[in-house]
Amino acid sequence: MMGTLVEERHENGGRGVGRRGVAGGMRVTHAHEDVPPGPLELPVIHDPTADAAARYRVLAHRLRNGHESRNGHGPRNGHESRNGHGPLNVNESRNGHETTVLAVTSARAREGKTTCAINLAAALAERGEGPVLLADLCVRSPKLAESLGFAPETCATLQLARANGDGAHGWELIAVWRDELHVLAIAPGQETEVLAPRAIETLVGDARQSGYAYVVLDCPAALASPDVGLCDGLVDGLVLTARAGVTRKSALLRAAEAFDAAPVLAVVLMGARGKR
Q1: pLDDT per position as a tens digit, 203-223
Q2: For the chain, percent helix, then strand, then coil, each to nearest 5?
């Protein structure tokens, strides 16, 4: 079921949309605040007092504060990549914090990566450190818009295609659930077979310059599509999901190997019951 998008009005010449907007060619054009129950479990949005929601908040907290660099310089500062070639590429967001770009993927399809990406982005937005961008890069099999219950007026595939060219481009985003969570989604039925590397580079660069505190990329499954490798070198860390009783350790290791430059920051077990 698709919800109704409410058009946002703005007075600053297109460099943002009221208190929802951000600068640098990225603007929120609509709001979608009532996320209906859908095919995915979204406890941070639908049941914020549940233990499952609390676990995503703990994950967000650990990604923000709990990972010290290998060279001892403290959290989110000077992290080395897995290949030891130096610090992660992080910039300052408009609130003084660094912009952190996270790729969420899995070994294969239906192992919970989109569920994890939405809940993680929502938990990060709750922290109030600045706007969070959640972007759908699963151009062959997108689930983000369907899961959140809306169809964007300007599909992400069209916006990515524009960003891959030499002409002018911009990004039209949807504010979902709360002001700080902005979504770039692919409209149902608008899948494509091509994910251009230049478009991803432009998207991530524009998001950093626009002052996002976090960018969460819902990436294709690592062993199902070579597209996931296009994000390597553009993200600051990798979040892997594994389906309880389904994902094999060997497949998970192969998924991690698709990223040579980005460190694995967390492995999230999806579908487990009882104690974890």
Answers
A1: 999 999 999 999 999 999 999
A2: 30, 20, 50
Mean pLDDT confidence for 68-84: 35
Q: What is the pTM of this model?
A: 0.84
The number of distinct structural domains making up the chain is: 1
Strand partners of residue 215 = 101, 133
**What dihedral angle (degrees, nearest 10) is formed by the CA atoms of 4, 7, 8, 9?**
-160
Cα distances from 225 to residues 86, 91, 138, 220, 229, in angstroms, run 28, 29, 9, 6, 9
Alpha-carbon dihedral angle through residues 16, 17, 18, 21, given to the nearest 10 degrees: -50
Provide the CATH number for the domain around residue 117: 3.40.50.300
How many Cβ atoms are within 10 Å of 97's Cβ, its own excluded? 18
